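ok here's the first one, seq then struct tokens
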Amino acid sequence: MHKRTILYTTLTLSLLFIGANTYLIEKADSKVDRELRVAEWEPVNKGALAKELPKAGVVASEEENYIYFNDEFGSFKKFLVKEGDQIKSGTPLYEYEVTDQSQQKSVLESEADQLEDEIDSIEENISDLKRLESSLPSGATDDKEIPIEASALQSEYDLKKEIAAKELEIDRLESQVDNLERQISDIESYETTLTVQSSVDGTIKDLSHAIDNPLITIASQSTIVTTDLTEKEIVKVDEIMSATVQSDVEEKIQKGIVTRVATLPKNDPHIQTDSMYPVEIKLQDTKNELLPGHHVFLSIITEEVKGAFVVPVTAIEKDGESKYIWILTSKGSVEKRKVETGLTVDGQQQIRSGVKAGEYYIVYPDEIPALQKGAAFITALDWDKVKLRDLKKFDRPTILENLLLGILERK
């Protein structure tokens, strides 16, 4: 009896299944084999894309300062530092013996006056730059964002960079003036042995024991990363572009900014050799552990977009010069929509216009045969997104028909 019940039940379900198949297929408005099955689809989301130029680089001192010696008014006596010494502004560097105190005093006073005039000129220039900076458009007013053109941002960056450089130059010149005034004071005290002090912080890189000029070379404590770019690469890189730097010394990825892009080749151009152009990157973290001579791997971000609509390149369909994406509409049909594309990086495509956030698109339209505008579509049921309260909105025949339709459509 039990086996007979199972047999009847199985037979009944089989007949129902076959009947449903026949009904749906023969039904005049049946959707079986008349709808597109879309297996892969995703919502349009925003993201960031960055095109990078990878290069090998090396850490170097940001600048070198040179100390000169004039033997017309004195004779060199001795160095007070040695190569490799870390020095500060005001550190005694060398001594020399004055042979003509009166003439040397006049020379030192003249040099001090020239430096004072130069300081005054730079201060006036800084005032002009600050007035110009204040005239640039502000990034925000009354807490409302105001778009600023890239040219304005570039100008603001250039102004801040120029002002900071000139302020540092004033500090250096004032230190030189203090050094000269101290030497003048020593001469007035009838001292014959004078001491020359450093006007900058840094490391003693080279001493000329032959008393040739430059007598002393001082490498700055601040560092930069340098690399050489080819003729094709140099035209892609501009100042203020962002960069990242990695090394075996530090696990942390360092962020930097391009501060110098050479317009002249590193060596004299020659028809039989490729020209290379030096580029400098300043690291944001000045307290890093990188030392001059350390080799690094860097990436210069030549193009970047943030907060852009991004889709896989597989979702983009080309038709001549135009590009399209297939959208799944809320009415259950597919729409072939023209889009404007932008940056492409690692298989990801920026969409500048033509889509809205949250719209669903077909990831692999090339894999769907007979894909045409306006066609109805079905897709696999995602049980994780099914909610009981939503199912209650439909009657049983509708649920049963669509469930069977989905079963019949499965490949």
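and now the second one, same deal
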Amino acid sequence: MSSAATRFASLPEMLNNLSYSIINRDLLRNLCLVNKRFKSAFAPSLYEEVWFRAHNTSFLMEKLPLLLGNQALRYTQKIDLAISLHSRKSDEQGKGVLCDFYNQSIQALLSKMPQLNCFRWEYVPLYTTTLATLQQNCPNLRTLVIHHPEDIEEILGISYDFNWDHDLKERRPLFAFQDLGVLSGLTTIEVSNIHGDLEITRKGLVQTLLNSPSLKTLALSISGFTVFRLWKVNTRFSCQQYQNFLDQLCRDFFDAGGKPLQLQKLVLGLSIIPWGSGDCLRRLTNLVCLEDVYIFNEEYETALTFSDDDDYIAWSLLTPENCPNLTNVGAYRLTKSVERWIGSLTEGFIKQFNTEWATEEGVAALKWDTDDTQTRSAAKLRSLTFNVNITWDMSDLEQLPVVNVEKLQALSAVIVHSTPEHQTGILEWLSRAKDLEQLFFAERCCANIPANTNSQPDNEGFEYKLARQCKKLRYLRLDQNAWRITRYDPAASGLDIQFERLDRFETRLIEEFQPRMIFREDW
């Protein structure tokens, strides 16, 4: 009689169900190599998402024919490209040639992906033909994420101050404008570094919103180069184009017959500002549905400025009365206006707060171990992300513990943690973190810090010390290294803690490991 494992492995429906619960790509790849039955069961999950980074650009170039011949592409639901044009060094291939390769290769792949529902594009100029191919070949598209290059206006030759130091000039007509209005049925729209003629871009966005009544996530941000260029024109009309972009977008949507959307997540990036009372947002979305809001309340040189005491942003709109389902809130800068707004909220209203620029005093205002009614709003804060912009002197460890972590379940912070002195201070600070389950520390931009290839941390290393200090910790990430923590009875197994490395797909499923900075993949 065959074993239970053998009988299980012989049932295709059981293998299929198992494949849906496996996230780790190495494991899925190995399972596909077992036999034909396993390959049939696990290949759809392995190829559900196809992504391209600097290390695998060969599959968009010399290995493209091999990839196009892979029948498993018919299972692909997500395609994700994020490749800097500086990442592939070659004397023969300039930026223009690489743009051609990436756009044309993706166009060829899109024709092989009838189930595609998510398209993500970053760093590379997006050709109009690529967007047209997406619209023609992928009728099930629901998520559109486009992060234009930060220097897109310089590439196009329309920024205030530019010089042509690359071979993209002759290709300018290929990516000068993308008409998003041709797309429909989207549930997620994320566009950063909006540039060029903002009037035309806004009209295209309005049409896309009208075509997508089931939209749940909207994230927009204008290019800093565009803001500065329009400011230098120095006319009332040019400044209003970027200062009142959101207000005019909402008005145009309403005037075109659009009914308030049911947005659950709203990310307002550079110069996408709800001024004053924020009533314009009521034309765009039903505030009752909002669960997650982020506002980039940061100045841009002299083109966009805020008063130190009052930024005139509609924080007062985000209240339990207007947004009863709102639990996650973020602001780039923890200003006095934000502090006053937090202090006015009902206790327990916010469960997760994140800020990327704060003073010690600002973060300290989020304490919840006090009876002061001005800070009681954070009494049930579950998750906190912060970056205190101070120089943490190793000789003064008292600078760090400005935040009471006693009741937090999740914490992420930009913080120096690579020296023994800093690690000692952090461990002392976290000694009160009895309920902490997720922890993420990054030293500034961790995208520039390579991952450690060792599968297990050193038994006496900082990772083990953190796990032993925080008894409930289940997930830990330090810069690019992320682990799942399993605890054992040492008397039974000889081990008390085991670390299991998470790949990038598993990492992004952990709430506190997700990026907090606006339109950034990694900090």
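notes on #2: The chain has 20 helices and 16 strands. The CA atoms of residues 152 and 379 lie 44 Å apart.
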